[in-house]
Structure formats: C-alpha cells, structure tokens
Design goal:
single chain; mainly alpha; 65% helix; globular
C-alpha cells in the first residue's frame, strides 16, 4: 500500500463544510426516523398493520419528505466526500481501518446513484407535464421521495463511516495526541540543618 500524504483529503476544498452538512443530515434523519418509529409503533397493530392506512401513508410521506429535504443540500457535493473517503482508505494505516468501511462506501455510492435516478425521473416527469396542477406536482414529489426512501435510509445508516474515515485520516496525518506531561515533582524542601550536641 502506498503511504502518500494521509492529510490529502483535508486539502479538498470545502470538505470540512460538506462534512458538517453531512453531520447535520444525520441528525435530521435520526430525528425523522425516531419520530416515525414512535408514530408507527403507536398506530399499528401487533402485526404491523396500520389502524388508519390513509393517515399512516400520509405520515410516511412526511417522513420521506423530511429526509429528502435534509439530504438535498448534500446531493450535489456528497460525491466529493465519497471520493475522499475512498482515497483515504488507501492512505491510512491498515490497523486503523474498520473492515466494514469499504463495504459501507460501496453501499453509499450505490444509494447515491439511486437517489440521483429518483431525482432525474422526477425532473423528466415535470418536463413532460409542465402544466401539472399543484396536486399533481405534490404527488410527483411524494413519488420521488418514496422512490428514494431506501437509498436515503442507507445514507442515514452508513454515512457515519465517511466521517469516521475522515477523522481517522486526519488523525493519522497529524500523529497521536499526547497528553501534556506534568513536570517532574520538585525535590522535597529540606529543613534547616541542625547540629546534634
């Protein structure tokens, strides 16, 4: 394995800011998923069937909309983080690499492709129906979000690997942190000399 500069990913313009937006997405996705789990548990029977299917579907659409909106600021730039993370895997010491990271990056890359495909399909639909009513547009948004849901969920589950890889790469580049070593203790003060008589 080539040991090039492990801090190279830190030099990617805007990477820190993109990583910050990724962390914000993860917090928003966690909130949406926790809220959804609570709602789903309270509004379904023991077999998972909703008491009110229409309300349940509406709430699911809200969840999908919230997670899509949280991911949207990243869509154009998250590929930069994936590229940097993949490059960092070849730079950081093998002993610091979690075995699952390469697999997780593959899952994220595939999920990003599916998110982009859902977005492309949505834009084609709007282009093909420029006079669509607001209700039709709303239905198209819900369809896009539902189509992208599994891929967005993959990002909410695996994207922490991107942040962990970046942190590991930066740590490897800067070396281990050493706690400040306290100065050695001063020799004990000696009492005045006394002479035995």
């Amino acid at each position: 394995m080539t040991q090039s500069d492990p801090s190279a990913s830190a030099a990617v313009p805007g990477q820190r800011e993109i990583a910050g937006r990724l962390a914000a997405f993860l917090r928003a996705a966690d909130t949406a998923l926790d809220s959804w789990d609570l709602y789903s548990n309270e509004h379904t029977d023991l077999d998972g069937w909703p008491y009110d299917p229409e309300a349940y579907d509406g709430r699911k659409a809200e969840r999908d909309r919230a997670v899509w909106a949280a991911f949207s600021p990243l869509r154009e730039e998250v590929g930069v983080l994936l590229d940097a993370a993949e490059a960092d895997l070849g730079r950081i010491p093998v002993s610091s690499v979690a075995q699952r990271w390469a697999w997780q990056l593959g899952q994220l890359r595939d999920a990003l492709d599916r998110i982009e495909a859902a977005g492309t399909e949505y834009r084609k639909l709007l282009t093909a129906h420029p006079q669509a009513s607001s209700e039709g547009r709303h239905a198209a948004v819900d369809a896009r979000n539902a189509e992208a849901w599994n891929a967005l969920y993959s990002w909410s589950v695996h994207a922490r690997a991107v942040l962990a890889i970046r942190t590991t790469a930066v740590r490897a580049a800067t070396g281990p942190r050493h706690a400040a070593t306290p100065p050695p203790p001063s020799p004990p003060a000696t009492a005045g000399h006394s002479t035995r008589r």
